Amino acid sequence: MNDKASVDQHTRDKLETVDKRLAVANAEIAAAVEQSTGLLAADHPKFQLRNTHTELLDAYRELVQTIDMVERVLGEIDEHSETPK
To answer: Domain total for the chain?
Structure first.
């Protein structure tokens, strides 16, 4: 059986949304890490850390929200695919 045929359009749309949010979360994390790469060589590490703290928190929040969405979608897929009793 074709995997795409076994998943309804609503579920595929949700998976696509999850995929996009995960890409956004990954991009935010990459940007935050890139911004903080020169931290040890900086003249004022405390100032540098303060500058990256907000970006890292934003990336963390986006990642947590994305993980929550992934868990919800996977739960819905699991419920959707269960055999009626």
So the answer is: 1
